[in-house]
Design a protein that fits this description.
This protein is an alpha/beta fold. The chain has 2 domains: 3-125, no CATH class; 180-420. The chain has helices at residues 3-15, 24-38, 48-69, 127-136, 141-152, 158-166, 168-176, 232-244, 261-268, 278-287, 294-305, 310-324, 329-337, 339-342, 350-356, 360-376, 382-394, 401-409, 411-420; strands at residues 85-95, 98-107, 183-198, 200-212, 218-225, 249-255, 273-276. It has a 5-stranded mixed β-sheet with strand order 5-4-3-6-7, with helices on both faces. α11 runs antiparallel to α12. The protein is elongated and about 100 Å long.
């Protein structure tokens, strides 16, 4: 037997000693001293952390059984009192430091219900959060299981991991129906395509609605799955749901030319200005142009979307049509079709233009979602896809630093909104 193994075996004998023989303070002091002087293993199987966890859990369980039966261990007062101790049973629980085997006391009446390690409980606090964190990063159930086995030496089945992540759905339903603020300066609507295996693998859009609050913070209002053929009826359902949750007014809504969306906005929030994403218009324009003409087309388009007014933009667009209309009629049609939703931002100053001319404000959110979705490949159904997207959203900005940077960037635009929409941008009631 190696020297380290002997040390660990000695330490385990100390841990397994009766509570009355060695106090918790003495145990900690002995193990820490041994770890410092003789190199006792800190982590891993049989390590210091596992042994301390074992001792703490068993001490707590011993206290619980004492309270339940009404007498201390080996106390003569326990004889013939109607219920007595009945030995222990070994049970392995998964903890943050790996699997730990504890001895759970029993009573003769079978009425003892331990709370620190409940009956049939196999995981202690922290493990579920670990599984959810890994799932939010896009790991499959199998990859989750392999990671826990490799790092913590814990055998957690794919079914168990599925059970843990399924608990997310209750929180998701509550989050999707929570009350909203009365007014938001800007709403951003964008889509993430996920692959769903329904007979055959096909793309399915998941729509994300993100808002900027009157305080300049970011708020994801909800996620909805579509089939790619959404129209006014679909968007009317989504926006009515948001209104029923308390959203009475939105100053502007930025989107990427989603069919039927402007009509639905007009019905639910008549005063809301719908602004198409200029960046998406530019990207779509280049799809119709040959690669060698991209720079020339970009140079011709810039005077249109940087024009000081709608009239000036119209003049520049006519010049664009004259120069490129014959070679690239699809580009001209693209801008003509989107013109009504393109021009609103031209009426505002540069601070508002910078934030409403594109859906870039939501792109960092979409990037996190795409990372998680791509890692999964495809999903068996719509519910699994929404669960993955929701977990990715809940893991955004864990340190809060991104929230601070976001808020600072929105100070100037919010001041401009306050002036441009005087009387509508008031503090929320929630």
């Amino acid at each position: 037997m190696t020297e380290t193994a002997v040390e660990n075996e000695q330490a385990e004998r100390v841990v397994e000693a009766p509570s009355s023989a060695v106090s918790d303070e003495q145990l900690v002091a002995m193990l820490v001293d041994r770890a410092r002087n003789e190199g006792l293993q800190l982590t891993g199987e049989g390590g210091l952390l596992q042994q301390l966890t074992k001792r703490v859990l068993e001490s707590a369980l011993e206290g619980e059984i004492t309270d339940h039966v009404g007498y201390e261990k080996h106390d003569p007062a326990g004889k013939n009192n109607g219920n007595s101790r009945n030995g222990t049973r070994a049970k392995t629980v998964l903890t943050d430091v790996g699997p730990v085997e504890v001895k759970v006391p029993r009573d003769t009446a079978g009425s003892f219900e331990p709370q620190i390690v409940k009956k049939r409980q196999r995981r202690l606090t922290g493990v579920d959060e670990m599984v959810l964190s890994l799932s939010a990063k896009g790991l499959t159930h199998g990859e989750n299981s392999a990671h826990l086995a490799e790092v913590y030496g814990a055998e957690v089945s794919k079914q168990t991991i599925s059970t843990i992540t399924d608990k997310v759905m209750d929180g998701m339903a509550e989050w999707q129906n929570r009350p909203l603020d009365r007014v938001y300066p800007v709403l951003f609507v964008d889509a993430i395509n996920v692959k769903i295996r329904d007979g055959q693998v096909a793309n399915c859009p998941v729509y994300v609605v993100m808002a900027v609050t009157v305080d300049g913070t970011r708020d994801i209002l909800g996620i909805w799955a579509g089939d790619g053929g959404e129209g006014a009826k679909y968007w009317l359902h989504v926006f009515t749901e948001l209104k029923n949750r308390g959203l009475d007014d939105a100053l502007m809504l930025v989107c990427d030319g989603l069919k039927g969306l402007p009509e639905a906005v007009e019905t639910v929030w008549p005063r809301t200005i719908v602004q198409t994403c200029v960046v998406h218009l530019l990207r779509n324009s280049f799809r119709y142009a040959a690669r060698q003409d991209w720079d020339k087309v970009a140079k011709a388009l810039k005077p249109v979307y940087t024009a000081p007014s709608e009239d000036a933009a119209t003049e520049r667009f006519l010049e664009l049509q004259e120069a490129w209309g014959q070679k690239y009629p699809a580009i001209i049609k693209l801008w003509s079709d989107a013109w009504a939703e393109f021009v609103p931002f031209l009426s505002f100053d540069v601070e508002i233009r910078k934030v409403i001319c594109s859906t870039n404000a939501i792109e960092s959110v979409n990037a996190r979602i795409r990372k998680a979705v791509r890692a999964r490949g495809h999903f068996p159904n719509e519910a699994a896809a929404l669960k993955c997207v929701y977990m990715a959203l809940m893991s955004l900005d864990p340190t809060g630093k991104g929230r601070k940077r976001w808020t600072m960037r929105w100070k100037a635009p919010l001041n401009a909104f306050q002036i441009a929409f005087e009387g509508r941008l008031t503090p929320s009631n929630n």
